[in-house]
Specification:
By secondary structure, this protein is mostly beta strands. The chain has one helix and six strands; from the N terminus they run βαβββββ.
């Protein structure tokens, strides 16, 4: 297995990006703007995002807004304070895995 990338649902993407960049040393790799879904490779704290890919060394994390541009919500949890986390597995050779 090459890597596992978590996708974490958050209430708002920009405050999360700010926290991970300023306090944890992550870099913003790309995102999708709220409303029109445009791909951006730099971020502005004033621009709402639905999605952000962050990286620190070999670690990657995806943040997904709880409320997306088309009004969808992440599948509600049994406990409201708990949101789902998706894991993406990157495998070099699936046949031998």
């Amino acid at each position: 297995m090459k890597q596992i990338i978590p996708q974490i649902t958050v209430p708002e993407v920009i405050p999360t990006v700010t926290f991970y960049c300023e306090l944890l040393g992550f870099k913003f790799m790309m995102g999708l703007t709220r409303g029109d879904g445009q791909v951006v490779v730099s971020w502005d704290e004033e621009q709402a995002l639905d999605y952000a890919l962050m990286q620190c060394g070999e670690v990657e994390i995806i943040f997904q807004a709880e409320l997306g541009s088309e009004g969808y919500r992440a599948k509600p949890s049994v406990r409201p304070a708990v949101q789902p986390i998706l894991l993406f597995f990157e495998i070099e050779d699936v046949e031998t895995f």
